[in-house]
Q: What sequence folds into this?
């Protein structure tokens, strides 16, 4: 999570800065009317829904995936390398259908040149379309002498959720059943959180590098990898109690609405714990202004974005109190349930 940059609707911003218009011959209208809008997700029958939720393992999410991430892990630190290797190992353990890559690069930062590495996991890379889930794996660097910053919500919980979701869904098992040639991809990056001032030249290193690389990597039918991304779902700052999450983009509003509907359905079925209202997290309403984050380099290249970030940010944001103790486990597990059903329906897994 970063500074609040925009509270205006994105449309005005896009028009002023020409976002989405930098893709040469590909008209923006074509990009935004691509399959994320025409794809029709079907609601899972209740028996399938319950069976899928059974595949989630709250202890695995917390003990196996989340706790190893709760170390100081700014880029270049031993903790960062350890976390990156942990993610890589867990993603490789998903099975042979997954291609796991470390995307290493160096970039010039205000502190001098630094080495970075993103982790990219793609199931069936040859599939024509991808649903891409993303979060940052590093923690923000604070000046020497500052208390340790563990970034439990920022973004250890999102990383653990991404691991648990693919593990529970095991989309590989459903290879023959995935509809419309869609597959799943997960991106974990080192963003390097604004060592000095947040700004376009000192932020989002991993996302900027990866967006550029994917734009230059050929894919099917004369397209690039970035054009294969049907929708890009960014998770950030999740794990505190009862986050208020809003829709940020008109072109993904129907998908945001599905999250809201799934939340309501699970609530009515009694499948969410410590969940006060039918719709506690995914608040319907007109698109809220964009919040600057790692999706920006993808947004600028015309990729439809679903940005799952609470507004306001958690109270512990960028403080030493962003720790495991201040997480709200029922919220984390509820989010894992809602997102599991969302992904299963999007991917057509039954
Ligand atoms: Zn942050």
A:
């Amino acid at each position: 999570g970063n500074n609040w940059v925009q509270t205006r609707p994105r449309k005005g911003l896009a028009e002023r800065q020409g976002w989405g218009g930098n893709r040469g011959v590909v008209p923006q209208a074509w990009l935004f009317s691509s399959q994320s809008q025409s794809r029709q997700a079907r609601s899972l029958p209740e028996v399938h829904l319950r069976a899928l939720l059974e595949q989630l393992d709250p202890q695995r999410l917390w003990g196996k995936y989340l706790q190893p991430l709760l170390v100081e892990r700014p880029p270049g630190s031993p903790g960062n390398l350890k976390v990156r290797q942990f993610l890589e190992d867990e993603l490789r353990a998903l099975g042979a259908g997954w291609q796991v890559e470390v995307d290493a690069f160096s970039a010039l930062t205000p502190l001098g040149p630094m080495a970075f590495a993103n982790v990219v996991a793609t199931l069936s890379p040859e599939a024509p379309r991808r649903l891409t889930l993303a979060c940052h794996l590093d923690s923000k660097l604070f000046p020497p002498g500052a208390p340790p910053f563990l970034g439990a919500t920022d973004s250890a919980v999102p990383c653990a959720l991404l691991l648990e979701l693919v593990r529970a869904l095991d989309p590989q098992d459903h290879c023959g059943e995935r509809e419309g040639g869609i597959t799943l991809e997960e991106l974990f990056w080192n963003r390097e959180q604004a060592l000095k001032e947040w700004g376009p030249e000192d932020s989002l290193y991993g996302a900027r590098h990866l967006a550029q690389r994917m734009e230059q990597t050929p894919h099917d039918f004369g397209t690039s990898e970035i054009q294969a991304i049907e929708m890009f779902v960014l998770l950030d700052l999740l794990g505190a109690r009862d986050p208020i999450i809003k829709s940020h983009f008109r072109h993904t509003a129907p998908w945001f609405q599905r999250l809201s509907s799934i939340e309501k359905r699970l609530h009515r079925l009694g499948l969410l714990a410590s969940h006060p209202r039918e719709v506690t997290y995914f608040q319907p309403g007109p698109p809220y202004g964009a919040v600057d984050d790692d999706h920006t380099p993808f947004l600028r290249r015309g990729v439809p974005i679903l940005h799952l970030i609470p507004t306001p940010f958690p109270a512990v944001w960028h403080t030493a109190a962003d720790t495991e103790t201040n997480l709200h486990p029922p919220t984390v597990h509820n989010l894992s349930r809602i997102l599991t059903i969302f992904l299963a329906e999007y991917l057509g897994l039954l």
Remarks:
- The longest strand covers residues 98-109.
